[in-house]
Amino acid sequence: MDIYLKKAILHIIDKDSGVPVFSQVELDLATEYIRDYLTNKIKKVSSAQTKTGRLAEEGAFTALVRESATNFVEASEKLVQRWYDSYQQSEEAPSADIFVVLYELDTKMNLAFLKVNYHDAYTHFVDADEAGIANKLIINRAILASKSQKADEAITVELEELSYELVEKKYLFSGEKRFYFSESVIETAPAPSLEENVRVIQKVAKQIGKKFDADEFDVVADIKEAVYDSIEEVGQINHEEIASRVFKDNITAQMAFKEEVQEKGFVSDVPPIREVREVSEKKFGKQKFKMSNGIELIVPVDVYRNPDLIEFVNNPDGTVSVMIKNVDEVLNRL
What we know:
Strand order of the largest sheet: 2-1-4-5-8-9-3
Distance between the termini: 34 Å
Mean pLDDT: 88
């Protein structure tokens, strides 16, 4: 993913002061560490937790996103103010910095809104008085997360198609936790994230499997493999393919599964996140097993599929034996 930064600005949200501190000057994108920090934050918006959707053509948030292409500084302030009008009503929302970034991706212009919460960190402070120099330990309460960590909340919008990727958190509003960003800021209901869809599939498959006496171990392993293959092949989760893979020749179980996942909130036509295959490799590219005797195994999907490398044997007494085969070398790492 080649990102070309065009404009960026930083606005400060100090909940204690009660008002945002808006910058009137853009960040200097000629500075390498600034480019590096923002680029990495934008890349990390895509994850298994990312929700996707399309902004409303006539929405207030949409108008500000479009304005950013021609009136960047002023539009960024309006965007942050619109967001802050909702955010400040939460009794638990923390202080943060907001980065608004205009950038090009795949020859198309995009806008990123990146919220990075503060956290405490210790540092030194050099003080001097009549007694001499005093090196002190102090707490800085406005430290930002490193570039390797994703933003706490974020939205990226492709300006032409208005498609977006959203990372949002629930905060407490008048005693109730809710997703204020989609409900009040962009006023658009996003599709479920990849993780939410998989959670529904896994829960329903376990329930259906139990009704039809399917082994939960096999059901979970088949789900993970089927999800991985579906994303690799078409970039989305195909619940019909998963039904046939998990329940094989049991047509009744397949039909029950497909009906139940729809009722539980699974959405089949979810726009794929930009880095969906990379996310799939990290999230679903390995089978993880924890056994009753304390042994844990992490097995890559391609190894799990190969009976010449690993085999699970059901014993007559009801136990399961795991056979690991054709290993050239065993490394013991601390």
